[in-house]
């Protein structure tokens, strides 16, 4: 049974009438009770301390929830909390009861109303932690990440934490919420906050979700939390799920290797600080931790002759990341002996490591790739060309440019060409003016030959190359890029062109 619309309207009218004419309000209230539209379950217990108006308002709230008119209940409670600077225990108690009721059959709207009331109620009385946990669980059940994000963000505001520390999502809600925030939210700082909560409050992460959970944190660059959780869960009988996971091993290796390199590059600069030796120890400690990650992974998966293909390619890739090129190639040799080929992504990682050390050797590797049936792509060729340009290896530069122009896909895929050119000119921290010019000259040769065949290139690439040429203080190359890529599309009022 659903009451007719006139009953719903009567609830709204009665609430408004209470502050104007209590005598008439009583008449309407009794009529609603006598007709059963205010059921006995909705009648609230009262005492001498409650006013007549309070009793009727809270009864209307309960009756509205009974008939699933949550919007009316929310409106009455919101007005009560906003109009009274010090709501009494009667109002607070029944508001909390109502919040629990909203969560029995949750919907996005009911979660929104629940959050709104919690926000209004908190300055007067923190809501029970069990209610917050139930809120997060409901958000999981109906897949409402926006509601969970609002609640968590609110609960971590400084003003809120001064009065009460609400629980973070837990159990299934924890891993679900981390995924939602990391992948879909603009508030990426919540990833760090949630990770810190898990570490500081020792919130358990379900066994099967641990590798992905830590990997997500590492991918976002939050090293302290990622390491703390890796070390926490890499021990005991379930440790292999952490230190033996390929994706997690790569994320952690990449993150902490980059951290060590960044610290090292700062130490290589002129440094007068008395903390220089301390920083050197930090670099050594970071590298030691990376070594520990690799050693545990290797120990878990050896012997390589019997290891899983993905574990082997992941370990080889990690070796190239940390500079253990010989060991990485030893893994590839085992794969080839098993008549298994690493995928192109893994090969490109190896190629990048070699090209950085010796572009000539990388050029030969491109030829070997083709012999083994692995066709180099724009990234492969662009990587070698990038490092050859950086080091001024003209023969390799000419060879790679020739290979690029022989690749049919390049001429039909403008996006692939743009990826290639950007890979060639990719700026690096230690680039000199001469190095930048060499890379831009390679890019110019690619653009010149590409456009000579009447292929079109996006103006976005043109703007990018012109900007880099100007930064390198090379007016000639800047003009060349502009004349070929931008001139015909330039408008008189386009400041960038």
From TrEMBL:
InterPro entries, sorted: TPR-like_helical_dom_sf
Protein name from the UniProt record: Pentatricopeptide repeat-containing protein
Organism name: Macrolepiota fuliginosa MF-IS2
């Amino acid at each position: 049974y659903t009451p007719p619309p006139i009953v719903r309207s009567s609830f709204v009218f009665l609430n408004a009438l209470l502050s104007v004419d209590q005598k008439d309000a009583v008449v309407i209230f009794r009529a609603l009770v006598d007709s059963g539209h205010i059921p006995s379950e909705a009648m609230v217990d009262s005492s001498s301390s409650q006013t007549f108006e309070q009793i009727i308002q809270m009864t209307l709230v309960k009756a509205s929830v009974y008939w699933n008119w949550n919007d009316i209940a929310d409106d009455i409670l919101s007005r009560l909390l906003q109009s009274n600077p010090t709501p009494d225990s009667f109002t607070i108690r029944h508001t909390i009861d109502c919040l629990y009721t909203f969560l029995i059959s949750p919907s996005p709207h009911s979660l929104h109303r629940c959050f709104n009331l919690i926000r209004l109620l908190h300055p007067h009385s923190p809501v029970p932690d069990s209610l917050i946990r139930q809120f997060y669980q409901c958000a999981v059940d109906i897949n409402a990440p926006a509601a969970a994000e609002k609640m968590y963000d609110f609960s971590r505001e400084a003003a809120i934490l001064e009065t009460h520390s609400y629980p973070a999502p837990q159990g299934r809600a924890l891993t679900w919420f981390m995924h939602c925030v990391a992948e879909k939210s603009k508030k990426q700082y919540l990833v760090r906050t949630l990770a810190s909560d898990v570490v500081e409050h020792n919130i358990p992460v379900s066994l099967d979700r641990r590798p992905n959970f830590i990997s997500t944190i590492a991918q976002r660059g939050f090293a302290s939390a990622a390491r703390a959780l890796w070390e926490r869960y890499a021990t005991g009988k379930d440790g292999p799920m952490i230190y033996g996971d390929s994706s997690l091993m790569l994320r952690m290796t990449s993150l902490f290797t980059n951290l060590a390199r960044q610290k090292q590059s700062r130490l290589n600069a002129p440094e007068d600080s008395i903390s220089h030796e301390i920083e050197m120890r930090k670099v050594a400690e970071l590298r030691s931790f990376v070594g520990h990650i690799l050693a545990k992974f290797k120990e878990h998966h050896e012997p390589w002759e019997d290891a899983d293909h993905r574990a082997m390619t992941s370990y080889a890739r990690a070796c190239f990341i940390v500079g253990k090129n010989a060991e990485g190639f030893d893994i590839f040799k085992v794969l080839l002996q098993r008549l298994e080929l690493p995928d192109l992504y893994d090969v490109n990682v190896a190629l990048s490591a070699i090209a950085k050390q010796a572009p000539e050797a990388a050029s030969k590797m491109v030829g070997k790739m083709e012999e083994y049936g692995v066709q180099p792509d724009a990234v492969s060729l662009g990587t070698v060309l990038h490092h050859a340009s950086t080091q001024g290896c003209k023969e390799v530069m000419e060879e790679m440019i020739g290979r690029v122009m022989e690749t049919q896909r390049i001429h039909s895929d403008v996006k692939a060409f743009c990826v290639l050119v950007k890979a060639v000119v990719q700026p690096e921290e230690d680039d000199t003016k001469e190095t930048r010019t060499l890379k831009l000259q390679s890019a110019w040769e690619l653009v010149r030959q590409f456009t000579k065949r009447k292929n079109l290139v996006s103006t976005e690439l043109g703007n990018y190359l012109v900007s880099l040429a100007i930064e390198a203080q090379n007016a000639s190359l800047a003009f060349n890029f502009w004349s070929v890529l931008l001139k015909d599309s330039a408008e008189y009022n386009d400041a960038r062109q």
